[in-house]
Specification:
By secondary structure, this protein is of the alpha+beta class. Helix content is about 35%, strand content about 35%. It has a four-stranded antiparallel beta sheet with strand order 2-3-1-4.
């Protein structure tokens, strides 16, 4: 499987803005062909070991059956609409794609 993990740091990281982005992830990004697992959520503030990276507000986790499903997802209308509606509040977006088993 291909794990597509995205970490969003927001300009406005108020509780309402964070919830808006998490809700948008669920609305636009979870029901696509080839998605094996989907989750979106918020930084776990209570995790504070030296190795914890806390430089984000929202995380997105989408696991695809293969690269073809991932590539198709990148161009579907819902994904593009998600970007268009939310990108204004993105300070930084970090994407981590990896093969997992």
């Amino acid at each position: 499987m291909l794990a597509h993990i995205v970490y969003f740091t927001l300009n406005d990281n108020s509780e309402a803005a964070v919830k808006k982005l998490v809700d948008a992830c669920h609305k636009y990004l979870k029901d696509h062909p080839g998605v094996e697992f989907f989750a979106a959520g918020t930084l776990g503030e209570e995790f504070s070991r030296p190795v914890n990276d806390k430089a984000y507000d929202v995380s997105l986790h989408v696991y695809f059956t293969d690269k073809a499903a991932h590539d198709a997802y990148q161009t579907v209308e819902e994904h593009l609409k998600f970007i268009e509606e939310n990108k204004e509040n993105w300070k930084q977006v970090r994407v981590f794609d990896s093969w997992v088993s």
